[in-house]
Amino acid sequence: MGLRGKALLSGVSLAVGAALGAAVAGWRLRGDPGSVWVQAAAELSVPPAAGVTRFGLPGFAQLKSRESHVLSYDPRLRGPAWVLEQLNAERVQGTATRQSCDFREDESVHHYHRAGNSDYLGSGFDRGHLAAAANHRWSQKAMDDTFLLSNVCPQNPHLNRITWNKLEKYCRGLTKSNKNVYVCTGPLFLPRMEPDGKMYVKYQVIGKNNVAVPTHFFKVVVLEKFSGELELRPYIMPNSPVDENTPLERFLVPIERIERAAGLLFVPNLMKSTNKLQAITAGGK
């Protein structure tokens, strides 16, 4: 299921960068056990022609900050491009409950570009959280925010309820032995060869809003140790049933595979943040 990749770095902050739309944006996530905040710096190069932006720009990266997570929304997919969380021992415990939570449209997204609950009815797919509800028991509002459909992708029910759930539980368990666990999750649309010998990217859409069904999902986990070192664990899972006995280690991949497929950057920004790469190990198929 791919190569196993793991990187150890020193530092105390996680940087995530991506080229989104016409802008080149650098995002840095920092936080303490009580808060998560995002500092964004974007540079937009506009031709000097007079009045070129008179009627505004037709689109721009949609960065949304919630109580529990930060996400970049892709209007074409009717869902997130990536969702970023900070977990620690305090955040994964609390009294928040799912019983009062309902999936709902994200009204901050234009109605042309957002998913609705009706899109999922009869589709055969679950409304799969990218920022998991159980990751945010520390606050009812934080848990409620994970039920916005901007944090959701169509997910195979068997995957969602078994192996993906196992990975989410594993991430929460990592908070017992680490200062912070940063989790970036998102959809992938990977190419495959068709009978004509050519490579194609094909994916299903569901509902009247044509919500995109990912072919795969990624989860990039960065462990901030009490010593200050960072450990990187990148995973890819297919959006299909997976044998529940398959060890999670089988889904570890080189981080470069996710960076290339998703159009995101993790390692260069981690290195900028820490200025020191201590070790990289990879091996085994």
Automatic annotation (TrEMBL):
Annotated DNA/RNA non-specific endonuclease/pyrophosphatase/phosphodiesterase domain ranges read 65-273
Per the record, a Pfam family?
Endonuclease_NS
Q: Which CDD domains match?
A: NUC (cd00091)
List ligand-binding residues for Mg(2+): N160
**GO cellular component assignments:** mitochondrial inner membrane; nucleus
Query: Which Enzyme Commission number(s) are on file for it?
Result: 3.1.30.-
Which EC class is this protein assigned?
Answer: hydrolase
UniProt domain ENPP1-3/EXOG-like endonuclease/phosphodiesterase: residue ranges: 66-273
Q: Which InterPro entries match?
A: DNA/RNA_endonuclease_AS, DNA/RNA_non-sp_Endonuclease_sf, Endo_G_ENPP1-like_dom, ENPP1-3/EXOG-like_nuc-like, His-Me_finger_sf, Non-specific_endonuclease
Q: Which GO terms describe its molecular function?
A: metal ion binding; nucleic acid binding; RNA endonuclease activity; single-stranded DNA endodeoxyribonuclease activity
Q: Which residues participate directly in catalysis?
A: H129
Its cofactor is:
Mg(2+)
Q: Is Transit peptide included in the keywords of this UniProt record?
A: yes
Entry's localization field: Mitochondrion
Mind listing the UniProt keywords for this protein, alphabetically? Disulfide bond, Endonuclease, Hydrolase, Magnesium, Metal-binding, Mitochondrion, Nuclease, Transit peptide
Task: Give the GO biological process terms.
Answer: apoptotic DNA fragmentation
Q: Which family does it belong to?
A: Belongs to the DNA/RNA non-specific endonuclease family.
Write the protein's name: Endonuclease
